[in-house]
Each structure stands twice: as C-alpha cells, then as structure tokens.
Amino acid sequence: MSVSIDVAGLRPERVAVVPSPLAELGMALHALSEPGHHPGLRGWVTGVSARLDPHLADRMCEADFLWRTTFSDLFMPFAGLPGRSTLPGATLAEDLDLLDKLTDEQFVDAALEFTCALPYCSHGPDVLTDASLRRRALELAAARGPRQLRFSERLLDDPPRIRAWLRQFLQDCDEAFFAEVWSRLRHPLTADARHKTELLRRKGLGEALTATSPALSLDEAAARITVDKLGTGHSATGDGGLLLVPTSLGWPHLSVLHRHAWQPVLHYPVGSPEPAAPTPVEQLALRMTALAHPVRMRLCRHLARSAYTTSELAQAHGMTAPEISRHLGVLKKAGLLTTRRRGRYVLHQLDVTVVARLGGDFLEGILR
Known about the structure:
The protein has helices at 21-33, 42-51, 54-62, 92-100, 104-111, 131-144, 146-157, 159-203, 205-212, 281-292, 294-303, 310-317, 321-333, 352-356, 358-367; strands spanning 2-6, 15-17, 216-219, 224-228, 233-236, 242-247, 255-257, 265-269, 337-342, 345-350. It is an alpha/beta fold. The strands form three sheets. A four-stranded mixed β-sheet has the order 3-4-1-5. A four-stranded mixed β-sheet has the order 2-6-8-7.
C-alpha cells in the first residue's frame, strides 16, 4: 500500500520546495473542521472558532467536504496549469489567481473528488458533457448527504458561479483569521523550504526526501519515489517538475497530489512530533492481523506478564509445541515479541511498548 511517483528523467532544477498560502489555508480549514485530527492545534482552533463570524461559520459548512472529507486539489491549483512547472504564489491573492486559471473541467473534476466519481490517476470522460457520468456523480453526492447534493448540482449547472463563491469565501477567511496565521507561519515555512532546497543542491533528492518525512523514500535505480500511505496511486513527473510544499498545520497528514496530468506535489508537515521511524502501513497491518487470532490473543495474555518458553506455553494452553511455535512465529514476524536465551531455553515475551503504540500508530497511519 503506497503512492508512487515516477521521476525518470527529472532534472534537479525541476524540483522545487515552496510554501503555498492557499494550501496552508486549506489545512487551516481542515483543522477547524476536524480538530480531533490535530490535538496540537486545539488552542488555536478554539480561539478562531470563538471569534468567527456566525455567517462565515455557516458558509464554511456549505462545502466543508472539500477540506474535511478530502484534501481537495483545488488548494494546489498551480499543479494543474500547463507545463506542470508552475510554482505557488507568494501571496494568497496570487494563488487564487492561479485557481482562476484552471479550466472549468479541471475545477469541477477536482471539486467532485469527494464523491469518488471521477478517475484520479488516469484520464476519463468530462463530467460536464457526459450525461451518464453526471448522473453517477449526483447519485454519489446524494449518498453523502443533502448539502453535498445541492453543492454538486450547482457546480455542474453553473461552474463559474461556484468558482466565484469559493474565491470570495477564501478571501473572507483570509480577512477573518488566515492573514494573521500566514504572517506568523510563512517565515518558518520559508526557512524550511530553504533548508530542503540546500539539501537538494548538496546531497540530492534522496537525502532531501528522507529529511522531509521518514514515510518518503527514493529508489534511485528505479527512479521512483514511494510514499507510505494507506492507499494506492501513481503519478509521474514526465516532462514537468516535482513540488514539495511544507505545512505547519498539517501533521499527521502527508498528502500526495497525484492527479492525472497534474504536476506531482508532496504536501508535508514541518515541526511535527513525527517519530524518526514511523511504523510502515504494511507492518501495522501485519501486527493487527497477528493480534486478531484468538489463540495469539490468549498467548499475549501470558506473554505480557512474563517470559515463557514454547514448552511452558504449550502446556498452559493444551497445545503442541509446534502449534505454539507457529503462532509465536507470526507474533515475532510482526515485531510484537522479544526473545532471549537462558541456557538451552529460549524465552519469549510480549513487547508491551510496541503494543501500547498500536493505537497511535494506527491513527497516524490512516490519517497520513
């Protein structure tokens, strides 16, 4: 389970690390809508919510699925422009001007991502002209709720009207709270971008990605970036570039824009409490599967209290030693056991530290 980016032929000068005020506004809206994802921002969320104009708060709910349910690519419009090498704007107004440059088809496709109605990694029909796809999009929107259906109907009937509504809404958010946030965050984000750019210049893309997030890796032989995500997808830089966009509000989310024909973007958190080596999604799945078996759960009850040999566990559970060994092997492969030798005996014990982290690892894995 991962998202991959083919970087064959990517020239070093086509890799850029640049903050985006519009992408950061998208993360701010997400944190306000899903504060449970961002416990470290609880104080900021409480303060902004308390002083938010009720009318703006109501408007924020009209299309919150664009930043609550998904991280809409509309917040990174620079990636969709021709040439696939456009950089984010230095100001929110510049980013919004880039949003205006997307075609109606691009805008609608990105806005309807929350319905999962359209192909993401490949080219598909145009929902504005394909009647069957339009019906399917509205059916999926209706399944999500009446607000989603009303928004989708207005979007498909009159894209310019929704585009104007969204731009005005984002400008009002800037005036209400985001301008102050951006004035505080843009300097550390710019400093991080400079640091990553220097790493790119001095040590190459692999080192820069490792410093960006332990969930990113580069296979230089295969010319492929792999992002450890609970999901699959693929993209390619082709004749375009690769963008790394830092966010101060994003942890634990590591977002990958891999929409067909758009410039790939890695939207990564900075200043986060991410551990040096986060548990890979495959390892997390292995651990949860290992613990799901009733026999292994009973074994864990013993192994959490003390260290036991295979023979002792076999006697306690009324099973044969080979049967116990097979279950211990599954737990050990999942990284849930520690073993030590005492004379000619091998003692097994549950690694309670690893088990205690499972909840946090699971939450980080699915939110990443």
